[in-house]
Design goal:
5 strands; disordered C terminus; 128 residues; single chain
Length: 128
């Protein structure tokens, strides 16, 4: 059997400089909370991250805005495409609200401007 694969792999855990290549919108499956999902890529891979329009997400959205050098009190998601930033990719586990089974997802966090943080590609002795 031959399988056609036209997708990059997920980024490995660690810090990466990424470019936001796509924004999609939706509502959470569990509580119907609006979100936008940002696809962030490097030449080696990608990660997708959901950003929820909720009170607990405000500091995360502010961190994202700072990392891509957007100012103001409103985030225009269409202006995110093409922006570069530094992200830390990691896995997180949580209990599925419907089944109680543990789920593990790959996500991005700890957003910083490009140049503010060391990247995973640097020798270990130089990482902070």
């Amino acid at each position: 059997m031959k399988v056609n694969v036209q997708e990059k792999p997920r980024l490995q855990n660690g810090r990466h400089v990424v470019t936001i290549t796509e924004i999609s919108e939706g509502k959470s499956e569990y509580k119907g909370i609006p979100f936008f999902a940002a696809r962030m890529e490097t030449d080696e891979g990608f990660v997708e991250q959901r950003f929820y329009d909720s009170e607990p997400s405000q500091p995360i959205l502010a961190e994202l805005m700072r990392a891509v050098e957007m100012e103001g009190e409103t985030l225009d998601t269409e202006k995110l495409v093409g922006k570069q930033l530094s992200v830390e990719v990691h896995e997180r586990s949580y209990p599925d609200p419907d089944t109680g089974q543990e789920k593990t997802i790959t996500e991005a966090g700890h957003f910083q401007q490009v140049g503010e943080a060391d990247t995973s590609e640097q020798p270990k002795g130089k990482q902070k």
